[in-house]
Specification:
Layout: E1 11-16, E2 19-23, E3 33-39, H1 45-62, E4 67-71, H2 79-88, E5 93-98, H3 105-119, E6 126-129, H4 137-151, H5 153-161, E7 167-172, H6 183-189, E8 194-197, H7 203-206, E9 214-217, H8 229-241, E10 245-250, H9 260-269, E11 274-277, H10 282-289, E12 303-307, H11 318-324, E13 329-333, H12 339-348, E14 356-361, E15 369-374, H13 378-384, E16 391-395, H14 402-405, H15 407-424
Parallel strand pairs: 3-4, 3-5, 5-6, 7-10, 7-11, 8-9, 8-10, 12-13
Antiparallel strand pairs: 1-2, 13-16, 14-15, 14-16
Length: 425
């Protein structure tokens, strides 16, 4: 975007985000960026004040301490004056951002020429010019939203509910039961054209997507097939770059042992817009469906949630257990394989062997199974019952409440009785 210079002038030394970075070949770049927001300049003071106000907000929200407003025509400070102010304030690299200048004559012609002239006085200063905002997909989307808002509030709300092109949505699918999906998650699934989903996501939830939506399974199946996280990140980034409407569908909540934080970081570094849609975590929902409130004024005022296995080698999370052993209620996800080791470790850390414990398999589904015992015997009882992963483990006095609060088991029993009666009729 910056006009090519002769060998005797400042030369480009790198390319960053599609913009040339310039500096003297004899001066190293110090990463102390200054930001120059350039507006067109108008005879109307209100228009110029708008540029100054936007500059102030960009500085506040972006955390830019070295930031100045400047104008291409009519108004002061000029680009040369704004450039000089940033240098005087200590900037050693300057990013020039055209604030809604036309991408043709101004951004491609007038602006680079003025910046080049201003920078010629400071051969030690690196500079770059960003791409204009006018054709950015988010600006286009915002324009559409404003148009719809002015004509039909319902239509505008409907537009906001849909997945947008070039954006990734990290969506929690909930604990399993499709009816526990959030409304936001449903709206995004109904409007996406690509969904990458985990192994434990109920197939019925995928039915909310259009028939044309591409579905890619990327979850881990026990100790078997696993899509590397780097590959998942690559798929998300590439799809968004292609302008697709991407939903990354994760079991439970995306930020609770779902690697949603890692994916959000990857999207951030790639410059991809994203949104996080929380889901109902199995750590909360599964005990509730088993009739076990995690807190109760008479039994528990603290809850700890941890994974039972290390993410790297799959070994038992002994360090995590040591950190939560004193919590009145402990919820363990992905702990089936190490259940015996987990219970022994907690007892060695001071938990009473007769502490109530429960193991719940396929929580929130009709096939839900629950085994209760003591901390010392729960591993053996679980094996005798033939339970397999996936399970949620709950340890604490609140498990005693299951005898009175097991609403889901009662509901299923009543449903079976009605089914038998109707069949007989």
């Amino acid at each position: 975007m910056v006009k090519r210079q002769s060998q005797n002038e400042v030369e480009p030394v790198a390319v960053l985000n599609g913009s040339l970075i310039h500096s003297s070949r004899h001066h190293p770049i110090e990463r102390t960026p200054g930001i120059l927001i350039v507006g067109h300049g108008s005879r109307r003071a209100e228009a110029n004040d708008d540029v100054r106000g936007v500059t102030r907000r960009i500085g506040e929200r972006g955390g830019f301490t070295l930031i100045e407003a400047a104008f291409l025509e009519i108004e002061h400070p000029t680009i040369a004056e704004g450039f000089a102010r940033l240098v005087e304030r200590g900037a050693r690299e300057i990013v020039v951002h055209p604030y809604f200048l036309s991408p043709g004559r101004h951004t491609r012609g007038d602006l680079p020429r003025e910046v080049e002239h201003a920078a010629a006085r400071y051969p030690q200063i690196a500079y770059r010019i960003t791409e204009p905002l006018s054709a950015h997909s988010l600006v286009v989307d915002a324009a559409i939203e404003r148009i719809l808002e002015s004509s039909d509030d319902y239509t505008a709300n409907e537009y906001r509910a849909k997945a947008q092109p070039g954006k990734v949505y990290l969506v929690g699918a909930g604990p399993g039961e499709p009816r526990l999906l959030t409304l936001r998650a449903h709206d995004l699934l109904a409007s996406c054209d690509l969904v990458l989903y985990d192994y434990l996501v109920d197939p019925e939830i995928l039915d909310f997507t259009p028939l044309s939506t591409e579905r890619i399974p990327v979850g881990k199946i026990g100790r078997g097939r696993c899509t590397p996280q780097t590959e998942i990140n690559r798929l998300l980034i590439e799809a968004a770059h292609c302008g697709r409407r991407v939903v990354r569908l994760k079991g439970g909540d995306p930020f609770l042992f779902g690697r949603g934080g890692e994916e959000a970081e990857a999207l951030y570094h790639a410059g991809i817009p994203f949104e996080v849609v929380p889901g109902v975590s199995s750590a909360l929902a599964v005990p509730a469906y088993a009739g076990i409130p995690l807190t109760h004024r008479d039994y528990s005022s603290s809850v700890a949630v941890l994974t039972g296995s290390h993410s790297v080698d799959g070994g038992c999370n002994l360090k995590g257990l040591a950190g939560v052993a004193a919590a009145e209620t402990i919820v363990i996800l992905m702990g089936f394989r190490h259940l015996g080791e987990i219970t022994s470790r907690l007892i060695s850390l001071g938990r009473e062997p007769d502490t109530p414990a429960a193991v719940i398999r396929w929580g929130t589904y009709d096939a839900q199974q629950t085994v209760t015992a003591t901390l010392a015997s729960i591993a053996e009882r679980t094996a005798q019952a033939g339970l397999r992963a996936p399970v949620v483990v709950v340890i604490g006095e609140v498990v005693r409440l299951r005898a009175r609060v097991a609403w889901f088991d009662k509901e299923r029993a009543e449903h079976r009785e009605w089914a038998v009666a109707l069949t007989a009729v």
